[in-house]
Amino acid sequence: MNWVGLNTLINREVGRFFSVYRQTVLPGLISSGLYIVIFGFTLEQRISEIQGIPYTLFILPGLIMMNTLTNATANTSSSMLQMKLLQQLPDLLTAPLSGFEISLAYIIGGTVRGVVNGILVLMLGMFLTDLTIVDPVGTIAFIFLVSWAFASMGLILGQIAESWDQLAMMQNFFLTPLSFLGGIFYSITMLPEWAQSLSFINPIYYMINGIRYTILGVSDSSFSVSFWMALILTVLFSTVAMLLMQSGKKIKQ
Amino acid sequence: MSQPAIHIKGLTKSYGDVTALRGVDMTIKQGEFFGLLGPNGAGKTTIINILTGLIFRDKGITEVFGKDTVKDFRFTRSKIGIAAQELSVDWFFPIEKLLYFQAGYYGLTTQKAKPKIDDLLERLGLSGKRESRLRQLSGGMKRRFQLAKALVHDPDIIILDEPTAGVDVELRRSLWQYLRDLHSQGRTILLTTHYIEEAELLCENVAIIDEGKILKEGSPKDLTRELGTAGITVQLGNMENEIESFLDKFTFTRKENRIHFLVNNPDSAMPEIILQLSKANVQIQSIETNISSLEDVFLNLTGKGINE
C-alpha cells in the first residue's frame, strides 16, 4: 500500500474544493438558508405541523441530505472528469498507485466535501431555528455514510462521462428530481397512494427519512430500512467504483 | 551482467482495427541515452505509454530492471520519470504545490521532497514562479515544469516524449544541455523524437520505428556507415512550379523550400539534379553535398522522410 501517495491524493482532492469554496461550499449554504427562510418561515403559517414537527424543522433534514449527496457526488464526478479532460490523469496513472488507492482517495475527498456541507447546513439550521438534535452521533454517522455512497457514485459517473454535458444531465435529470421527490418538503403520507408507492423505489427517500429520524426522531420509513439502504448503497457503489478504476475503463486504452 | 533498464519483446498493440505495434523488440542498457526515432503515428508514444502503465499491452514482454511493468507496477513505475508530450493544465494549485503532489504520489513526504523541488525549480529557472498557476507560465516554462515533474522523485530512467516539440531554438539547446547533464549523472534516458538532429546529437543508440515496427537499431554512427549514402541538399528560391514530375528518377524528401536528395555519387548526380530543376523553372538558391546522416538512413529504410 502506497500510504504517502494515498494521503497526497486525499490532500489534493480536499484542497481542491476548499480552494474554490465559493463554488463548492457557499452556494449550498446560501440556497439552504433561502429555503429555510422562504419556504420554512412563510409556509409554516399555512401548513400545520407534520408528524408533530413545525414545517421549518421538518424540511431541515431533507435540505441537509440534499446538500450532502449533491456535493459528495459533484466532488468526485467533476474532479475525475476534469482530470480526464485537462490531461492530468496520466500523472496519477503512471505513478505507483493502484486503482484501489486512486479510487479510495477520490471517495474520501468527496466524502469530506459531503460531510462538511451537510454539517454546515445543520449548523445553519440550528442558528436559524430552535432545533435540538435527537441523536447527534447518529446524524453525523448517517451524513458520513451517505457522503461515502454518493462520492463513490460520483466517481463512477466521472469515469464514465465524456463531457460536462453528460455529467450535468445526470445531475439535472436524475439526482435533483430524485432528491425533491424523496420528500424533502413533504411527508409521503400527504401524497396519493400511487405516488407513495413510487417513493418506495427512490433510494434518496430512504436517505432523507433516515436523517430525519436521527435529527427529529420522526420518519416515514423505518430507520433500520433507511440505514440498511444507505449501507448497501455504500458497499455497492464503492465496490463498483473501485473495480471500474482498476479496470481502467474509459481512462486507459 | 546487470539487468537492462528497459527490455521489450514481441510487443503488440491494436486500437480496434488499427494496429499500432507489430511485435516490437527493444533493449535499453542501464545508463544509456537511447532515441526512438520515427514519424508521427509510428508507435513511439504507444511504446512508452505501455511501459508507464497508461495503455494496456495486447501481447509481449515489457520489463524495467527485469521486472514486469504490469505485475510489478509499483517497482517499475517508481523507477521511471516521464515528461509527456501533452502538457497538462491545472486551475487550482501553484506549480510548487503540484510538484509536492507529484512527489507524494511516488511516496515522498513533503519533508523529503523539499530539497529536490527547490533544486529543480532553481535549475530549471522556475524558482521565481513557484506561486504561479500553470496557465500563467509561458510555453517554454510549461515544458520545463513538465521536466521538473518527471524528475521530482529522482528516477533512474527518464522518458521524454518529444521534449522539444514546439519549443524555440534557445530553449531546445538549454534542454539538450540539461539532458546531457542528467545522462552524465548515470541516468538512463529514453527520448522519442522526430527531430533527426536531436537524435544524432544526443543519443548513443537509436531505434528507427515506422508503422509499429522497429526497422533498425544501433548507434547513429554505425547506422549511417551501414545504411547511409551521401546526400545533396538544394534550397529553392521560388516554389510556384510543380517539380515532382521532373525529379521522379531521384529519391528525395522535401520540406518547404528544402529538398534533400539521397544519392550514391554526388558528383555525378548533381548536374542531372540542376538540369531537372532548371527544366522545372525553379530558382536554386543554394546547393550543397553532405555526408551521410540519420535522415539518409531513415529515407533508405522507409522510402520516405521522417516528417512526411
Key terms for this structure?
A: mainly alpha; 11 helices; B: 308 residues; alpha/beta; Rossmann fold; Alpha-Beta Plaits; 2 domains; 10 helices
What does it look like?
The complex is a heterodimer of chains A (253) and B (308). By secondary structure, chain A is mainly alpha-helical. Chain A has one domain. Chain A has 11 helices and no strands. Chain A has helices spanning 3-19, 21-24, 26-43, 55-85, 89-93, 99-128, 136-160, 164-181, 193-199, 203-216, 223-247. The model of chain A has no long low-confidence stretch (mean pLDDT 91). Chain B is α/β, with parallel strands linked by helices. Chain B is 35% helix and 27% strand. In chain B, the strands form 3 sheets. A 6-stranded mixed sheet of chain B has the order 6-7-8-3-9-10, with helices on both faces. A 4-stranded antiparallel sheet of chain B has the order 2-1-4-5, with helices on one face. In chain B, strand 1 (6-15) and strand 2 form a beta hairpin. Chain A binds chain B through residues 2, 4-5, 7-9, 11-12, 15-16, 19-20, 86-88, 90-98, 248, 252-253, and chain B through 15, 52-56, 73-75, 77-78, 80, 82, 84, 86-93, 100-102, 104-109, 149.
